[in-house]
Amino acid sequence: MNYAALANFALDVDSIIAEFSEIPSVTVRPDEVPPGCEDKNRYSNVLPLPETRVPLKRIGNDPTTEYINANYITGPGNIRNYYIACQAPLSNTVVDFWRMIWEQNSRLIVMLTEYMENGVEKCYEYLPPSEVSDNKRTFGDYQIILKKREQRDKYAISSVQLINLATRTWREVTHLWYFWPAKGVPDDYDSVIDFLSEMRSYMKISQTAKEYDEEGVEVIYGDQNRSSFSNLSKLRSEDSSSGNGLNVYSPAKAEEQLRRGNVTNGTLSRMKAASEVESMYNNEYYKWKSE
Questions:
Q1: For the ranges 100-109, 155-164, 169-178, 246-255, which has the lowest average pLDDT?
Q2: Greater model confidence, 229 or 2
Q3: Is residue 254 scored above 60 in pLDDT?
Q4: How many angstroms separate the CA atoms of 216 and 21, rounded?
């Protein structure tokens, strides 16, 4: 599909429905969750695929300390374990979350949800609220210091110092937070394109930093929104090597096969938005190239 066809396809609801119907959806059974880990899942029907679940290092003889609701996701060029799609932290999993960030040497976190929506907690507050007066939080062996936060119209960029109190070592982590709406998809596609551009830039920086350390992966979460966003980011990454064609839904299908339906891939409006955003991005990209 070339870019002109892609733009037209974004407006063809029937074709989108047809593509959507081809995505396989097989749910993970509750009995596939390790015993004793049930309360580490926010939703009983959003469970990680065992084959690609991110393993934590066992603490002592407790096998439940190895579990977190997170999966490795294939990235551009079919690079395995390129991303991590992770459940937004709960009060009883926030230590596990930061432990995963440390163990996986992740230098970039992408947040796609609010802490609260309509009075319901969607994500435990795992970051300090201010870089000025209340900039520190400690969870288990990890201290988080918010060093800097830059506010944009629809998203925020934060610089975080993650300290391992047990080993007395620390790392810099970048936190990108898009203020995804409670329902539907963003109506401002320019902000999504800007956010994707910021993410790609920080990923390059983080990869450079990790050349002096063990390899790491990036973390994307936000429950129902994370699949839509990771698909967009993969589309965005692949455009430089795909000639004049672009397969919109192959990343969605690949991810669905990996996660077997555990994360809601989104409504048809999310899929339509993904097409429209990518079309707009490529128009802007080639306009910039021609200038």
A1: 246-255
A2: 2
A3: no
A4: 34
Residue type, 74: T
Distance of CA 39 to the CA centre of its chain: 22
Was domain 25-264 assigned CATH 3.90.190.10?
yes
Residues 6+ apart with CB under 8 A from 137: 126, 127, 128, 143, 144
Strand partners, 72: 84
Q: pTM score, two decimals? A: 0.75
E-assigned strand segments in the chain: 70-73, 83-86, 108-111, 116-117, 120-121, 136-139, 142-151, 155-164, 169-178, 218-221
Rounded to the nearest 5 degrees, what angle is found at the Cα of 108, between the Cα atoms of 40 and 244?
A: 110
**Whether the predicted pLDDT of 25 surpasses 70:** yes
User: Which residue ranges make up each domain of the chain?
Assistant: 25-264
Cα–Cα distance between 165 and 98 in angstroms, integer? 12
Q: Does the structure show a pLDDT above 60 at 93? A: yes
Report which residue type is found at 170.
Answer: W
How many residues can be counted in the chain? Answer: 291
